[in-house]
Design goal:
2 domains, rod-shaped, Muramoyl-pentapeptide Carboxypeptidase, domain 2, 10 helices, five-stranded antiparallel sheet, alpha+beta, 418 residues, two-stranded antiparallel sheet, single chain
Length: 418
């Protein structure tokens, strides 16, 4: 039976130790496969103070959008517009912030992925180093001189042997520690990339939701602005005419109209809430000049003359002396538009009244131009308040004759309610 020398056994054991240490390093290196997991579910964006403020603004805007612009006071209309404008500005700011956060998170994810790619290359280099070391340990095992040191029995030789083992152990441990720390760094970078991607997706979804809210806010704002412009077309037309009859009342109307016009400057018109007037070809009236009849000094469309006569007679029988002004030639309004707005077809017929300087009503929007409206006077003075006896009587009786008040103008009554 073959025998082996003690030296051969020790050499075998030492070689096995080298391979064992190397195997430990390789096992650590084998753990390098770090899969990039799917993005963590971001979940619903937490409701924070900013979201709560946006919800409050949206609710306030919803209420403001329900204000009756044609009937409300100037203060009510201006307050509603202010609320709607604030909601739009708030939604625009929220959209900008959500997009900024989405971009920042996307940039963070991209940086984390670049860092992870570099760390992966570092790990590949470590693996190559370990593999090279393992091959070298296999091909070039410890030589006889080293093995003799391990056979020493003296204390000094024993210290040398321990130093050599410790040196080798530290070298192997350093490699393993590098692999472990590099792997941990890679995992952290990939985790950061996943989280940043999830954050970017959440902020992008938030931005999309805010964009929809902004669109709704702008729709509300534009609808109310269009109604304000319809009111301006009524009041500015009256202001231009009534200032010639009653300078004080004319200034009052003009000041109110100027405040309303200033509140809607720059807001696009949605088309909602405004009377549609087709731009007339060749500068003709958008409404054919109606057949006219003068009743007790008030010129109106012949189609309502009988009703107006009945109303005036009934008021007189109750001791209320009503007079006033009805039909107005649209050419006077066209001349004002040319003067204040411009000479193009658009400037004369379509430009919003608040875009002119000073604000000027569009021709064809006033019921006076159709002979279907009257600015009433009671006992020789324009009815400028709802406490005026003439207004009180009309409020109780005018509907019987097919005439209705424009609440923002106590003097103005027309047939739009029929």
């Amino acid at each position: 039976m073959a025998t082996t020398s003690p030296r051969s056994d020790k050499q075998k054991r030492l070689t096995q130790r080298f391979f064992a240490l190397t195997a430990a390093v390789l096992v650590s290196a084998s753990i390098l496969g770090v899969a990039v997991g799917s993005s963590v579910d971001a979940g619903a964006v937490a409701t924070d103070a900013r979201t709560q403020r946006a919800n409050v603004r949206a609710e306030q805007a919803r209420v403001a959008a329900q204000v009756n612009v044609l009937e409300g006071s100037k203060a009510q209309v201006l307050a509603a517009l202010s609320t709607l404008n604030e909601n739009v500005r708030g939604q625009q700011a929220a959209l900008s912030e959500a997009r900024r956060q989405a971009d920042a998170s996307a940039a963070e994810a991209a940086q984390a992925e670049r860092d992870a790619a570099q760390t992966s290359r570092d790990l590949d280099a470590l693996r190559a180093r370990v593999a090279k070391y393992a091959v070298q340990a296999y091909v070039e095992p410890p030589d006889e001189a080293l093995m003799r040191r391990f056979e020493a029995t003296s204390a000094q030789e024993d210290a040398t042997r321990n130093a050599l083992l410790n040196m080798q152990s530290r070298t192997d441990t350093d490699v393993i520690d590098q692999l472990r720390s590099t792997k941990a760094r890679l995992e952290e970078q990939l985790s950061r990339a996943r989280q940043s991607k999830a954050d970017a997706e959440a902020h992008a979804a938030e931005a999309q939701g805010v964009l929809q809210s902004l669109s709704a806010a702008q729709t509300q704002q534009q609808a109310v602005a269009s109604q304000v412009r319809q009111r301006l077309d009524e009041t500015l037309s009256d202001a231009a005419f009534l200032s010639r009859m009653d300078a004080g009342l004319g200034r009052q109307i003009a000041d109110e109209a100027a405040a309303l016009a200033n509140a809607v400057i720059g807001i696009p018109s949605s088309g909602s809430g405004s009377t549609t007037v087709t731009t007339p070809p060749g500068g003709n009236s958008p409404y054919p000049t109606p057949a006219l009849t003068t009743v007790n000094g008030i010129t109106v469309a012949s189609s309502i003359a009988t009703r107006v006569r009945g109303l005036l007679n009934a008021a007189s029988a109750d001791g209320i002396n009503l007079s006033g002004y009805g039909y107005r030639d649209f050419n006077a309004q066209i001349a004002l538009r040319r003067q204040n707005c411009g000479t193009s077809q658009y400037a004369i017929w379509e430009m919003p009244p608040d875009a002119c300087s000073p604000p000027t009503a569009r021709p064809g929007y006033s019921y006076h131009e159709r002979g279907l409206a009257i600015d009433f006077m009671a006992n020789g003075r324009f009815i400028n308040s709802q406490s005026n006896p003439g207004f009180v009587w009309l409020a109780a009786n005018a509907a019987r004759f097919g005439l209705y008040n424009l609440p923002s103008e106590p003097w103005h009554w027309d047939t739009r309610g029929t």
